[in-house]
Design the sequence.
């Protein structure tokens, strides 16, 4: 034992120039974790926050008690949404590089987290995402053109030019307005769920937060309120290992799993293979059923990896090994679902390639239309008077005056 | 030297001079900060002096207070001023009042550095200028440099100050002076006298404004990015303006401002932050209290509009030269 206190500084498993090291990621074999009854007391199922719920095994079979036994249609729809997410992300980064949009954030490698959860929930459930779950937008039927117009801040932008790219929302899709301020959505989702319970409705709320953002006090507000009121909410921590340059150890992941914070607050915590479409679906369905039964909230940790840069402003080769993702033990979510379908004889490389091409064309066509409504550099622009609206419901006098002043200034 | 290098030099120097100085914040250690302001500091001074932190602004400031109470001099970085609000309670209720409530028994000499201001297409969450909401709190100093020279000297002064200091860095000025015209090619700091930064230790005293350009026709009071915009606007109009960079928002150098306005009889205030209850209101009140009988015209105020900073209308929002020129004309004509 050292004779005096010392400051522990978490050390990243690997930095540039070092060999990737994922020995810290505790794995369970697919199918190894038992699936308890959805009404089980949180204290009886703490093991779920330590083990890793997985369904797809190395032979691409769905195994074990968590297998959600989805029909082929649902699997193919899931694959389509995930592939669309990837194609869309790739294309939008290219448009950012061309200077057509100011900024973008990809979700590459994490597509299953959003798509599987979105499909496991009901259309009336309210979603409070962070900026990295674009798959939810696709599941909830967002039009590509509408998303692109938001990215472009153009004349058809749903946010009327007020938000950075990717900060979407959808009223019919029941997707809350995404905030640039981390973690704020987490306790808000709990409040939404409390309101559903107060009103006697059985819709639930679900929210997503990065593991890095779980360091914010808002994370703890969410767990506390969810637990105190038994709110019908699913709280998802997307542990993609990195928060810009800081690895998950800086958010407290070195000592215990993020899922373990659930039982600490008296709710179940499920630690789930976030790159396993079936496991994410099954865990979400379990938590949803539990919430709708009145048994309260669940915390789900999705173990995944942020395969791309944090954003178009980021260069990850400065802080992690280039080949990190190639060594990631949980693989690629799109590839894993694809292989599962192929193993069942319900998909093929040819069909996959054809789907890829089809989605690329769809995205390209949507881009042509979206760009016709204006880009950063050319085409029509939003009416600048709009910038004074929606600060309040009614335009107050001083803003009307400032609007006038701007008109004079700009002639 | 650009402002990033000047700030880095100040921290490097203070880490070397004073073993009590520590630097902490999100991504500041291994990575060197998202704007590279702390680049190389951890490698040079070690992991116990330059700490990466969890993404918890409240935690960062609270921990800095505790460290300061235990004898350290923390320099905390909040990645963007727009993200300082989770720390607001710790700043307002704790950091600012610790000395007062304990009758001087405890104090926390914490410096909080944070990039502020627009002009980088950051939208409403990477563009704010929140100086007024800190100026309104009793017990914290608030400064904002407009040149690399001042940035280094003021940061050293802030770290040495026994009171807490909010150190606002106008991020549009990190790489060069900016006159408000986004269509002009960027100019590096090497073209500006404020980019000449001496090696080694020096301070720019907190509480002192600087007369950037002496003049007789009108006093322009400004700080941060707007100092450069106002200068360019006055030049384009051919006005003999006296331009004052406030630099220290709290405490405010009232004497320098009052002496200038007493001389010119006309005054224009320019800041990037929203207008309503902005710091300009305090400047106007103070100046008219001191100079009412010298004034030839109502004091004019140029500011950002009273809306969040809109992503699509960055340059319509930003109080550029056109807005300054229009106000200058009004204040020169008198009414
Ligand atoms: C309150 C707040 N603090 C800091 C930031 C700056 N910031 C934006 S994203 C980010 C990293 C978030 O990492 P994580 O939560 O792990 O999510 P990921 O980006 O990995 O999906 C930081 C520090 C912010 N947006 N809001």
Sequence:
């Amino acid at each position: 034992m050292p004779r005096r206190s010392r400051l522990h500084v978490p050390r990243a498993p690997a930095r540039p120039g070092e060999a990737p090291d994922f020995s810290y990621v505790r794995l369970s074999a697919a199918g190894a974790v038992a699936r308890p009854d959805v009404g089980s007391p949180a204290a009886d199922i703490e093991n779920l926050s330590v083990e890793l719920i997985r369904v797809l095994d190395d032979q691409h079979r769905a195994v074990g008690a968590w297998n959600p036994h989805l029909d082929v249609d649902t699997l193919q729809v899931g694959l389509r949404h995930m592939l669309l997410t990837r194609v869309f992300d790739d294309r939008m980064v290219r448009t950012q590089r061309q200077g057509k949009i100011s900024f973008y954030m990809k979700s590459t490698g994490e597509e299953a987290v959003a798509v599987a959860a979105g499909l496991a929930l009901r259309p009336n459930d309210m979603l409070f995402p962070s900026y990295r779950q674009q798959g939810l937008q696709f599941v909830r039927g967002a039009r590509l053109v509408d998303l692109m117009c938001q990215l472009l801040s153009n004349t058809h932008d749903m946010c009327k030019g007020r938000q950075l790219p990717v900060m979407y929302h959808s009223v019919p899709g029941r997707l809350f307005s995404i905030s640039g301020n981390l973690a704020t959505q987490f306790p808000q989702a709990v409040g939404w769920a409390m309101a559903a319970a107060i009103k006697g409705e059985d819709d639930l709320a679900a929210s997503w937060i990065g593991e890095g953002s779980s360091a914010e006090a808002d994370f703890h507000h969410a767990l506390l309120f969810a637990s105190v009121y038994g709110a019908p909410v699913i709280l998802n921590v997307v542990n993609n290992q990195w928060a810009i340059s800081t690895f998950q150890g800086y958010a407290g992941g070195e000592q215990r799993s993020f899922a373990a914070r659930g039982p600490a607050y008296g709710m179940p915590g499920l630690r789930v293979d976030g790159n396993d479409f079936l496991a994410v679906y099954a865990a979400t369905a379990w938590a949803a059923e539990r919430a709708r039964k009145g048994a309260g909230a669940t915390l789900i940790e999705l173990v995944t990896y942020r395969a791309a840069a944090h954003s178009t402003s980021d260069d990850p080769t400065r802080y992690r090994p280039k080949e990190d993702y190639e060594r990631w033990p949980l693989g690629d979510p799109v590839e894993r679902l694809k292989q599962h379908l192929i193993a069942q004889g319900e998909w093929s490389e040819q069909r996959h390639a054809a789907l890829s091409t089809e989605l690329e064309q769809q995205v390209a066509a949507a881009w042509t239309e979206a760009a016709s409504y204006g880009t950063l550099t050319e085409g029509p622009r939003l009416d600048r008077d709009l910038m004074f609206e929606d600060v309040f419901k009614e335009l107050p006098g001083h803003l009307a005056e400032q609007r006038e002043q701007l008109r004079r200034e700009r002639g | 030297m650009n402002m990033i290098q000047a700030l880095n030099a100040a921290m490097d120097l203070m880490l070397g001079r004073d073993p009590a100085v520590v630097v902490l914040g999100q991504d500041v250690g291994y990575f060197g900060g998202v704007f590279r302001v702390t680049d190389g500091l951890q490698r040079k001074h070690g992991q116990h002096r330059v700490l990466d932190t969890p993404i918890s602004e409240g935690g960062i400031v609270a921990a800095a207070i505790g460290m300061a109470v235990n004898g350290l001099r923390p320099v905390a970085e909040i990645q963007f001023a727009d993200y300082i609000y989770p720390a607001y309670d710790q700043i307002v209720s704790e950091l600012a009042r610790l000395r007062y409530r304990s009758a001087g028994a405890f104090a926390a000499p914490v410096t909080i550095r944070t990039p502020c201001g627009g002009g980088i297409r950051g939208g409403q969450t990477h563009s704010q200028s929140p100086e007024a909401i800190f100026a309104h709190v009793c017990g914290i100093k608030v400064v904002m440099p407009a040149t690399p020279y001042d940035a280094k000297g003021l940061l050293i002064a802030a770290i040495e100050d026994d009171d807490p200091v909010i150190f606002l860095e106008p991020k549009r000025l990190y790489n060069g002076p900016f006159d408000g015209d986004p269509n002009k090619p960027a100019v590096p700091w090497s073209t500006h006298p404020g980019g000449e930064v001496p090696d080694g230790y020096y301070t720019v005293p907190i509480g002192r404004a600087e007369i950037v350009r002496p003049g007789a026709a009108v006093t322009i009071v400004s700080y941060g990015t707007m100092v450069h915009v106002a200068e360019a606007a006055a030049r384009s109009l051919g006005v003999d303006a006296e331009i004052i960079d406030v630099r220290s928002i709290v405490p405010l150098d009232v004497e320098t401002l009052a002496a200038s306005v007493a001389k010119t009889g006309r005054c224009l205030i320019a800041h990037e932050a929203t207008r309503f209850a902005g710091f300009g209101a305090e400047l106007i009140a103070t100046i008219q209290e001191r100079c009412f009988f010298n004034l030839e015209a109502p004091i004019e105020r140029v500011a950002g509009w009273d809306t969040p900073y809109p992503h699509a209308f960055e340059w319509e929002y930003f109080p550029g030269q056109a807005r300054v020129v229009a106000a200058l004309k009004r204040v020169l004509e008198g009414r």
Remarks:
- Chain B touches chain A through 41 residues (CB under 8 Å).
- The mean pLDDT of chain B is 97.
- The pocket of thiamine diphosphate is lined by residues A 132, 180-182, 210-213, 240, 242-244, 306, 310; B 26, 55, 57, 79, 83, 86 (CB under 6 Å).
